[in-house]
Amino acid sequence: MEETFRQEILQHFPKKETDIRTYSPLALAFLGDAVYSLVIRTMVVSKGNRQAEKLHNETRSYVSAGKQAQIGRRIWEKLTEEEKMVYKRGRNSSPYHHAKHASLADYMEATALETLCGYLYLQDQMERFLELLEYGIEEEKQEKIKQVKYGEKDFN
Does the active-site annotation cover 33? Predict the structure, then answer.
């Protein structure tokens, strides 16, 4: 069986064996934020070579607390019971701050998505996270098509 990227990292650097169920939701979100960002940056760059500013602007459109909150709300129905428990732990965490350009509710929803991402990464279930993320992004595209088709406006 092929090793995951995470497993390869751990072969090269010292590690402490820890049961991931004991990680705080904010520790999972800390890791999940980086993994989520890497996934989005990979997706954006794979669309073609462009100026760094254009890459950054497209990446920002997916990495904002508001966008992550929308994706999190869209995928909720697709989560397993275990994933929902992890997601809720992230949403109910007590961060010391929140984003300047997002409501507290959106920030907590974004933290929940990052917590889930961190958890699935540590479980070597990135394929599952990618499936959920793809669904969340695709649902957004479908909503935008409906808005254009029927003349609706998004007031979010």
Answer: yes
Sign of CA dihedral 40, 77, 115, 81: negative
By C-alpha distance, which of 7, 147, 133 is closest to 70?
A: 133
What are the tens digits of pLDDT across the range 59-110? Answer: 999 999 999 999 999 999 999 999 999 999 999 998 777 777 889 899 999 9
Average confidence (pLDDT) over 44-66: 94
- DSSP structure class, residue 73: H
The single-letter DSSP state of residue 18 is -
Instruction: Read off the pLDDT of residues 23-33 as tens digits, 9 standing for 90 and up.
Output: 999 999 999 99
Catalytic residue among 33, 106, 124, 154: 33
List the domains of the chain with CATH numbers: 23-136 (1.10.1520.10)
Q: Find, among 92, 109, 95, the residue nearest to 156 by Cα.
A: 109
